[in-house]
Amino acid sequence: MRARTAVRVALLALAAAVTAVALAAPRFTWREVELVEPRPDAIRVRTSTGTAIAVDTRAFAPEDRTRLERTIARRVREAAQ
Q: How far apart are CA 32 and CA 50, in angstroms?
């Protein structure tokens, strides 16, 4: 049960961060993602047009960060099909 709560909190935090940044951040589709760079404190996503964003993951539990990385990879993979 704690794991589910932690995931929900992490997803809510991510949604809030994305919403706050989305107002000024560039927009792109999963299909445009060319590179995903996991870094110690963030996950950086770059597109074929040179756009880049970074998702700050310092507050994430290790398993939540892993889950986010896998979700991003799955979305990119699905968009490429």
A: 10
Domain boundaries, the chain: 2-80
pLDDT in tens, 15-68: 766 665 555 667 788 899 999 999 999 999 999 988 888 888 989 889 889 988
Tokens 């970074």 appear where?
A: 54
State both tokens at 28. 């792109």
Q: Give the N- to C-terminal CA distance of the chain in Å, as an integer.
A: 35
Residue 33: Cβ within 10 Å count = 19
Q: What distance in Å separates the CA atoms of residue 33 and residue 26, rounded to the nearest whole number?
A: 13
User: Cα separation of 50 and 21, whole Å?
Assistant: 18
